[in-house]
What does this fold into?
Amino acid sequence: MLRQAQIVAASNGLTNVETKHAEAGALPFPDASFDLVTCRLAAHHFPDAAAFVGEVWRVLVPGGTFALVDDVSPDAKILPDTSDAELRDLETIYNAFEKLRDSSHGRCLTLSQWLELMKGTGFTIAHYEHMNQEVPFGSWTARMRCDEATVGRLKAMLHEAPLNKFLMPHTGESGFAFTLQEAIIIARKPDQE
It folds into this structure.
């Protein structure tokens, strides 16, 4: 991905783009060095979400913005008629489903957990929402080169309760598909710490 970023920057004539490989929980940048930090569909791979959010806080200037987009686990905001115990079980099952397809998957937090984590770090939440993202099952499994047995198990899991309630498998325009939940959160570091 870093090489692709370099290619895109060069093809657009951008000469002030620098890429770095780093651990999300230990960013190699000085304090207060960015106005904006974004993270799109990667945080569920990070081993420590709290350390990541802490590092975002550290590298942002006062008044800086943090924009996060990530897949989320089920919570009461998404499935309001589900008990806390059922939501905890479903979160475990959903993360196991994701990890079966992609061994680098860590854990999808819930939207509520992300909001609590950011607020607990000191961020103010400017905006948040969740959205349905239709995912064609065939290309989703092909991207990770899943073998036939894994594809079969993933498809079976999609049809089993309680995962089917959350991921809503269906046949759409692209064939067999399911619906991921994604959160979009815009948070700000206050001007004065």
Strands lie at 34-40, 60-71, 124-136, 170-172, 175-188. Helices lie at 2-11, 49-59, 84-101, 111-121, 137-143, 148-159, 163-167. The CA atoms of residues 52 and 115 lie 14 Å apart. The domain at 2-188 is CATH 3.40.50.150 (Rossmann fold).
